[in-house]
Fold this protein.
Amino acid sequence: MITIKILNANKLVEKEKGRLISKIAPIFVNLEKAVEKRIAEKLMDAFQEKEIEAVIEIVSES
C-alpha cells in the first residue's frame, strides 16, 4: 500500500491556474480534493501507459 498526502494544494493551483484563481477557488470548491482527484487521474494515466494494473482510491482523513 502507498499513501500520498498532498501538502501544497494551494501552491499547485496557483502555479497551474494563477494567483487569483488560487485565492477565490476555495470559496467554490475544496482545493485539496480537486488536486487529489487530478493527481489520481495523472497517476492512472501513467500506470495505464506502462500497463500497470492498479486501483487508486481517494480516502478521507478521519
Remarks:
- Residues 30-62 form one domain.
